[in-house]
Target: HTH-like domain
Amino acid sequence: MTAHGLSIRHSCQALGLSRSVYHYQPDTTRDEPVIQTLLALVERYPRYGFRKLFVVLRREGHTWNHKRVHRVYCQLKMNLR
Model:
């Protein structure tokens, strides 16, 4: 944006974005424990789908939200196996 002579502030204002949204960097390291646990469970229970794996996660004591686990499950393309 600065290459075209516009400041970030004016560009964001023209697009209707806040500057904090423009500078936002997601923290992907927070999902690492979920990824490692899901990969281990898939090795142990290869025929289980998302729902059964989520039940196993709960029984093991993990309190991750089902939407978060499902997002990671889909990012790992486990829903296509």
Notes: The chain has a mean pLDDT of 93.
